Amino acid sequence: MAQLLKLSDYVSRYEIDMYRYPSRYVRLKKERWTRLKQDFDATRKGLDSLPLYHQYEEEDSLFKKAINRFRKKKTEDNIPLPTNENLRHKTLDELKLSFKEELFQFQLNWASSTVSEISPIKRAYEFDTLLQFLVKELPDTFFIMYEPVLYARKAPVEMDILIISPTDIWLLVPLKGSKDAIFTIESDRYWTKQENGVVEKFLHPSIRLKRMRTVLEQILEDVDHTLTIRQGIIAKDSFIDLPQASQRVQLIDKRTIQRFRQTLLKNQSPIKNAQLKVSDKLLMHSMTVSQSRLQEEIGEDTVENEGDIR
After folding, report:
1. 146: part of which helix (H) or strand (E)?
2. How far is residue 231 from each of residues 43, 129, 162, 169, 279, measured CA to CA in Å?
3. What is the rounded average pLDDT for all residues in the chain?
4. Is 165 helix (H, G, I), strand (E, B) or coil?
5. Fewer CB atoms near the end CB (10 Å): N or C, the chain?
6. Domain residue limits, the chain
């Protein structure tokens, strides 16, 4: 599963130390899966429990707290034993799907909080199917910045999607529509979306791509890297009805998104130093809006106390 470096203008764990947290995430993920898989196998064999991880029983759970991100906002870096709920899965495939969802919530947590700061997260991100697809279906070595706000010449610019792989930087402009929506080109400046009998005109997505590329190149102008900048327009659930005329901009719709995923999965390179340098530079130029955890906890306690009084 990919690593969500930045989500909107939220505070991110990766901003603390870009060179440390990617490897920590991979380690935590592997430890968590090992425990889930061993307890799953033990349950299938009719055993009540495994003695291997009893020393961890008193530890707080980073993953558990990530799942409860919107109820309890604490984040220590420890791994729990699997719960009874984790072990209810009848098949290994069901366990894997549950594990992916758990990791997705964990990544949302890291992309919106640190030990001392927190950013209120829009609930819509939890159900964003494109965000889920990118995080769940790409490798650990891929870094995602989803709708970040980057500073170019001190001016904040709202971006779309950046995927930083060991060899490439993908700039993606998403097109949102239903499964029956069809996107077509009208002119050099406009596209149209046909959906449920309604035709809507909007600016050519390449205009947004050009702006994103300009901002990216400005930020990285003094960074020595070998990553190739690639561009795409993606309609995950809809159709893009025009030929792939330009090799500079890849068109990705519901018919080709799995092919696009397979192309990315072919890149099995480990995390590269240039990739880390680029990601760190982009995070340094990202807008962050957050508040102190202490202030929020005080506010929650006040509300709860007032409720008790009433």
Report:
1. strand 143-146
2. 47, 20, 9, 8, 17
3. 84
4. coil
5. C
6. 10-139
At 305 the pLDDT is 41
* H runs (alpha helix) in the chain: 21-44, 62-67, 92-110, 129-137, 205-219, 257-265, 273-284, 293-309
238-259 per-residue burial string, b: 16 or more CB within 10 A, e: under 16:
bbbeeeeeeeebbbbbbebbee
| Type of residue found at 241 | D
The whole-number average pLDDT for the span 172-201 is 94
**CA–CA separation, 79 vs 35, rounded Å?**
9
Question: Do 238 and 178 contact (CB within 8 A), yes or no?
Answer: yes
Alpha carbon of 225 to those of 207, 268, 272, 277, 305: distances in Å? 25, 19, 10, 8, 54
Secondary structure (3-state) at 27: helix
Residue 168's Cβ-count burial label (10 Å; 0-12, 13-18, 19+) is middle
At residue 154, the pLDDT reads: 87
224-230 mean pLDDT:
93
pLDDT in tens, 116-136: 999 999 999 999 999 999 999
